[in-house]
């Protein structure tokens, strides 16, 4: 059942991407990139139970790393992607050591502060990051197949779609593995898991690093799509929005973050066209999701019929 | 010598604004374990309401009196209507209060526009005062003294009155407090309202010094969080110490190394969370 649903969803997205005019394709690609970002956060938030309010820091580090590689070293997509994902993982490895000394509300605050430190670095280090001007003029990436050039939106759409599917597949594998099941156990009751002999800290740390790598990868897709990156991508607002996407869609589900990300991205784009008050609408969405559907829309949809 | 005394006074006046802002936040967290990101909105709306009242009435003091009352009311409504429903779920509180922050931010932008504005200072305090060879703005001096006065009043209120005793009892053990007949619901609403009112007051006083602008709610909430983390959640003394620390560090940072000024706030916050999450004086 779920595989059929997933196939239909993918098919719909592909049809939309092919049939709609280029502007909408742009929006879809934004949505797909946000989906990769949200899926990475979901690993941390939904499966391991660690609410990170600074996940955008790793997204930004991936974006800046790939951007810098593309501007100064090589146009190769693979090298850029590797650098960006590694940058996210490395920053996650460093910040994770500090952040995992805390739990709950304090973890929220420390990840917030760490995210803001990343933002401050991006903002202040003009020589490297361009300060609040950001990095600009990042060229379209080269995936090394001479017949395929990624300067067309259509081809980039295909690339991000493949990237999302790959990320989802990797997540599915991870979550279904013994490691993934341990993570979920830790989310439910870390004390009991510790008593059973599992190394709780190590599992959390690895989840943190992997989620950060995933965010870095999303950042790579972002920077190649936009050709531009600025410190705002590291700001807490970006982190909070990713969190909303995960919660709206359904934390701890595979497709939830995708649904949440696509919904918010599409909604945001259309709302911005017709009104100046997207901030208001977004704020009401935050409030609404928390009060009405805290488990997300996917879990509401997936509820078996007849059990209301 | 002049440079340092001026920076110290500037840091002190910033610290007083931060204290008004974070005293409420700290006690609210200590009491209700609620993380309220919309606290910054109290500052912003307080400043804007103050601006409008001052412009309409011509009196700074009138604005200073009215704005906190209105913002306090807003705070009570927010707590009773929304925050009470997510009492024990930190993640939901963050998302909910963040939503409120966004809503208030948009409403403020619609009502008061996007240009940064500064609240006009009262004539009595608009000028400079000379101490020895150093010339200080009178407003900042008055602000610092007002901040200390408020701190003393709060301390007396919390530590020496029956109402304060009820608040402290509810902070220490909510169930027990309810058990001996304290109306904790009323205590919570009252503390929340007072915290909001203080933030609104900070908006007026700070607005005359730093101005009000779209995005001020964000800027101050980050500073306020740094203050309560360093000072310790749930402690008035901690809020004062944390405010002094952040106020002076931030001011010196801005004066001596502007490109690193942002770090003077967040690095101590991270360090404190990593090594001593309860802060200097916090109750965990």
What does this molecule look like?
The complex is a heterodimer of chains A (308) and B (284). Chain A is an all-alpha fold and 308 residues long. Chain A has a single domain (2-302), classed as Orthogonal Bundle (ABC transporter involved in vitamin B12 uptake, BtuC), CATH 1.10.3470. Helices cover 75% and strands 0% of the residues of chain A. Chain A has helices spanning 2-19, 22-47, 56-72, 77-99, 104-124, 126-129, 153-176, 178-188, 190-195, 200-226, 236-249, 256-274, 278-292, 297-302. In chain A, α11 crosses α12. Chain A is globular, with a radius of gyration of 19 Å. Chain B is mainly alpha-helical. Chain B has one domain (2-213). Helix content of chain B is 75%, strand content 3%. In chain B, strands 1-2 form a two-stranded antiparallel ribbon. In chain B, β1 (128-131) and β2 (134-137) form a beta hairpin. In chain B, α1 (2-32) runs parallel beside α5, α1 packs across α9 and α2 packs across α8 (184-210). The longest helix of chain B has 31 residues, at 2-32. The radius of gyration of chain B is 18 Å and the shape is globular. The model of chain B has no long low-confidence stretch (mean pLDDT 87). Chain A binds chain B through residues 51, 53, 98, 101-102, 104-106, 108-110, 112-114, 116-117, 119-120, 123-124, 126, 236-237, 240, 243-244, 247, 277, 279-280, 282-291, 294, and chain B through 33, 35, 82, 85-86, 90-92, 94-96, 98-107, 109-110, 218, 222, 225-226, 229, 259-260, 262-263, 266-267, 269-270, 273-275, 277.
